[in-house]
Amino acid sequence: MDQDLKNVEQQVDNVQQIEKNEVAPAGTQKKEDTLETNFNVLNRQELLDKAKELLKSASALSIKESMEAIKQSFYRKLKAEIGTIGEGTELIPDELEIQFKAVLAQYKEKKAAENKVLDAEKEKNYEQKKAVLEKLDKLIASPDDLSETLNAFHKLRQEWKQIAQVPQDKVNELWKLYSQYQEKFYDLIKINNELRDYDFKKNLELKTSLCEKAERLAEESDVLSASKTLQKFHEDWREIGPVAREVREEIWQRFKKASTVINKKHQALFELSQEEEEALVKIKEEICAEIEGLDLTSKSHKKWEDSTQIIIELQKKWKDTASAPRKVEKKLYKRFRNACDAFFKAKNEFFKSIKKEFTSNLEKKKALCELAESLKDSTEWKETSDKFIEIQKEWKTIGATSKKQSDAIWHRFIAACDYFFDQKDKNLSGKKTEEQTNLKSKKEIIAKIEAFEKSEDSAADLAALKALSTEFNAIGHVPFKEKDKLFKAFKKATDKQFEAFQQIKNSGKKVTDDRKRLMKEYTQLRSDIATYENNIGFFASSKKATNMLVEMNKKIDILKEKLVDIEKKIQALDNSEN
């Protein structure tokens, strides 16, 4: 047994020597190269340059805290500069901010890629450490020789140390199991008190050394570097075995106290001043108030879209603004989220109602299109024109339709309207040409009546004049403004000629009472016919033009038939006298 203990002590010495000479476990990150500690003394251009310089580092994870500190300082200074600009001024990112955001984006991409690789390595390391624990479990249950078991135990410890980081949520679980196996090992192999004391003493020396190193870190000016080094010390602490029970709490409290000093300095580096906290709270309260102040009852499509753009800008502003103290931030974010939700809910309801209204308006406009299309081929120009004017007025009273349907339905409607009025214009143009031709023809007849020279055959002369009169009456409409003037000229010319014939007859023979009566009736009929024809132009501009024109033309036809009959009677009387 004494020889076994000597062998064990020799092996412990060998392991101790190996542990003194061992290097840092594989996968441990190197100390971050931090050229400047107090980034608050740098201006924004210098901070941008520093960020670009750090980005050149081989590892994004090694510059994480420095980049975070630079970011905090950069935006703190930017907000201070913005504070000097008057209220209401539109804030546009300057070139420095644009470049800085680009550097941050590159850093985030680089860090994300490294984290992905690191996470995979951590999972692999986790499986390796579980394998070491399984070996420890088997070793503890092994009945092998003490010296061989101790050798295997230290080899497993060395293997454990050389395995790099594992997922953070697995660290405590693994460490507890590892500690338990270490303690079980010492208990199960029943190493004598001298060996246990020796191991405790060695572990105490290592942990005391870590305490001293941690205490010296408080004097370093580079807080970020000191914090990172402290994390490495904590990893080393967990790797060192237990110490004697009577000093276990004491040594831990010493190490904890030194760690607290560094952690407080690190925390203070990122803490905001009271004024800065109040400024952040004010900014976020103003964002909430602005969103809450938006009109949620508007009926304007454009106003809703404008308000949406405002919301998007405010959401971006919220995202770019640093967090307020945790309790206040939580309350403010709830208010912010509720305001945004209320806006988009109201907007959604508005557009649902608009969609229903659009559908209803579209159906109304389709009905007007169908009516316009049914009227477009009508030749009842006056009556149909009035109907088109009415439906065009009705179209204007109907609200909007969706953009997708608006142009198509409008082109359909206006096409029907344009077609009708184009046809009307063509017809009226032809009618005007015809009226001008009629005017010319009637003027020529009046000129013939005025220039008519009598012959010795009175009956033939009278028949010729009557033929000219009949020809005049048979010609269609003339321009309305010429009607009265033309009729007066015609009446004057015919009256003059017929009066001359009357005088000749009176001088040559006695006019019978019947002929006088017939001539009087004849003259009255000619006057009535001329009056009716003259009045047709007035009736044509009235609303019931079509029906009235039909009735008027019927009356004129009846009067003309009577006129022909009287002419025959007068001619018969004249022939009987000859």
Fold and architecture overview:
With 578 residues, the chain is mainly alpha-helical. The chain has 18 helices and no strands. It has helices spanning 2-21, 44-55, 64-82, 95-140, 146-162, 168-189, 193-217, 223-239, 245-270, 274-292, 301-320, 326-375, 381-397, 403-450, 458-474, 483-508, 513-539, 545-577. The model is unreliable at 1-36 (pLDDT under 50).
What labels would you give this structure?
0% strand; mainly alpha; disordered N terminus; 18 helices
How many strands in all?
A: 0
Oligomerization state of this entry?
single chain
Stretches where pLDDT is under 50 for at least 5 consecutive residues are: 1-36
Give the CA-based shape.
rod-shaped
Beta fraction: under 5%
Estimate the helix proportion, in percent: over 70%
What's the order of the H and E elements?
Answer: HHHHHHHHHHHHHHHHHH
Radius of gyration: 57 Å
| Euclidean distance between termini CA atoms | 187 Å
Largest sheet: none
What structural class do helix, strand and pairing data support?
Answer: mainly alpha
Count every helix, treating DSSP H or I runs of 4 or more residues as helices: 18
Quote the average pLDDT. 79
